[in-house]
Amino acid sequence: MTKASSTIKPEEAAHFGALAADWWDPKGSSAMLHRLNPVRLAYIRDASDLHFHCDSSLFRPLAGRTALDVGCGAGLLCEPLARLGARVTGLDAAAENIAVARAHAAPQGLDIDYRNEAIEDFAGKDFDLVTSLEVIEHVDDPQAFVNGLAGSLADDGLMIISTPNRTALSNLLLVELAERTGQIPRGTHHHEQFIRPEELEKLLNSAGLEVVDTSGLSYSPSKGFALSDNLSLNYLMTVVKA
What residue spans define the domains of the chain? Predict the structure, then answer.
């Protein structure tokens, strides 16, 4: 079961919960996320080093800091954040994902606080780093969701958020091609729910946040995912409190 919430869509939680057991298989239904994750992590690491004035050679640059990943799935981002030294909390709408995340982290000695909670029901505040990657396009009320993210961020904290852009290219590659060829499970994406950068920035500004960087994510069959100046497929934003 998923907890009732003003932003969680029960059908979305059920969809991703059904994929939970397969989440950590790099060749399974979450294969695309596995290919995307290194690029997202590199972006987070660079943004964190800059924001927190960390030496880029440090193995644990987030030591002593707290991190919150909202829409954490089975922990694909939480685990590397923990290895970078952060005390990590992960929230997800699907209880199945949380169960798999806990089971995967435990034998590795990773002490991650996983919770089946919506961000607006979560009492945690003042996290140094708040992340939410490929999540906002699945929620029922994007502004309430962003408000929840903002409420969990420390005054001097850093937020990283990413989502597909609502363009013809994203519809072609992420919905028509990727889902029809089985690279992404059918029903994962709904193009009308994708958010354009200017729309997301407006939501963030309304929550008292400021965007300090926007970078695109491009994809090619030969090279995979890479950071790009082209925002037409997918993009990441670095955000701070205004």
Answer: 10-241
Q: Read off the pLDDT of residues 126-173 as tens digits, 9 standing for 90 and up.
A: 999 999 999 999 899 999 999 999 999 999 999 999 999 999 888 787
Q: Report the alpha-carbon distance of residue 84 to residue 201 in Å, rounded.
A: 28
CA distances (Å), 39 to each of 9, 74, 79, in order? 28, 18, 15
Q: Determine whether domain 10-241 maps to CATH 3.40.50.150.
A: yes
pTM of the full structure: 0.91
SS3 letters for the chain? Answer: CCCCCCCCCHHHHHHHHCCHHHCCCCCCCCHHHHHHHHHHHHHHHHHHHHHHCCCCCCCCCCCCCEEEEECCCCCCCHHHHHHCCCEEEEECCCHHHHHHHHHHHHHHCCCCEEECCCHHHCCCCCEEEEEEECCHHHCCCHHHHHHHHHHHEEEEEEEEEEEECCCHHHHHHHHHHHHHCCCCCCCCCCHHHCCCHHHHHHHHHHCCEEEEEEEEEEEECCCEEEEECCCCCEEEEEEEEC
pLDDT at 4 over 50: no
pLDDT at 63: 97
